[in-house]
Design a protein that fits this description.
Helices cover about 10% and strands about 15% of the residues. It is of the alpha+beta class. The protein has a domain of about 140 residues: Photosynthetic Reaction Center, Chain H, domain 2, CATH 3.90.50.10. The longest helix has 11 residues. The protein is rod-shaped.
Length: about 280
């Protein structure tokens, strides 16, 4: 089974575990409370199960890094400490971990071989008859190294993603409303009146009647004066209100549906043999 650095397996692992990052925690000897090194990284398997801590033994052996199985640790997050029963002798015997080290079965067997000895004092060694095969080996065979059930009760959380819908107000555009002047030729018909003089010469009914000389004035000059009038067009322009334009905004509402893939963690309980498992749901 391949091993991966936790940041390569899950780039956002800090948000996933929702707790203090084990990286950077000090590693202390369980008995003497002496600091022996620092956790520089974490190795997980293909299922994301924690398997080893990469420990920099700078307080014991300068520049050397080794793998520390998780089952041989006690993590105290409140104190930013990791306790282990690793001894300096075992630290010297452990194969060195370097960047680029091939973490294959043979390398892990060298590591596990050191921890399987009774000198670590964590628990009794495995039965000498236990056989290990690269094709069938699994971490359950080394439960003493990787099983964390012997530690204090552990509580962890299952997470799921949910969609959170928010709205943002952004400018979608603008409407500019203005006026422009257009010209056209308008026609208007105006009836006008003009006066004219009609001169009629008619024979009076008493034509031939003798009148006295003093009645008829025989003289030259204006006999009648008549004023003549006519109407002429008076065209002018005036501005009048034709219509009003009212500009206002209205809000149209619509429902926009979005689709996204979300993740949810489910609990997997792997059992070996016939253990009694009491699953309680307090949701």
């Amino acid at each position: 089974m391949a091993l991966h650095k936790i940041s390569d397996f899950d780039t956002d692992y800090q948000s996933t575990i929702q707790g203090k990052d084990i990286k950077g925690m000090g590693v202390y000897s369980q008995g003497s409370d002496d600091r022996i090194g620092t956790v520089s990284d974490i190795l997980v398997d293909d299922q994301g199960q924690f398997r080893y801590l990469i420990v920099d033994l700078g307080f014991w052996i300068f520049g050397k890094k080794v793998l520390l199985p998780l089952g041989r640790t006690t993590i105290v997050s409140a104190a930013d400490r990791v306790y282990t029963q690793l001894t300096k002798q075992q630290a010297e015997e452990l194969p060195e971990y370097k960047e680029g080290t091939v973490l294959d079965y043979d390398y892990e067997e060298r590591v596990r071989g050191v921890y399987r000895t009774s000198s670590l004092g964590a628990s009794a060694p495995l039965d000498a008859t236990t056989s290990y095969n690269r094709d069938t080996h699994n971490y359950a065979q080394d439960a003493d190294l990787f099983d964390t059930s012997t530690q204090e009760d552990t509580t962890f959380r299952l997470y799921e993603e949910r969609l959170v819908a928010n709205k943002q107000r952004r400018k979608a555009g603008e409407v500019a409303i203005g006026k422009r002047v257009e010209t056209e030729t308008a026609n208007v018909a105006i009836p006008i009146e003009k006066e004219r003089v009609v001169v009629e010469r008619v024979t009076p009914t008493d034509a031939g009647r003798v009148v006295s000389p003093d009645v008829t004035a025989f003289h030259e000059g204006e006999v009648a004066h008549v004023e003549i009038y006519e109407e002429v067009p008076d065209i002018r322009k005036e501005a009048v209100v034709r219509e009003e334009v009212r500009v206002r905004k209205v809000v149209d509402q619509e429902t926009v549906e979005a689709q996204e893939t979300i993740r949810r963690e489910e609990l997997d309980v792997d059992t070996h043999g016939q253990p009694v498992v009491d699953k309680k749901n307090h949701l």
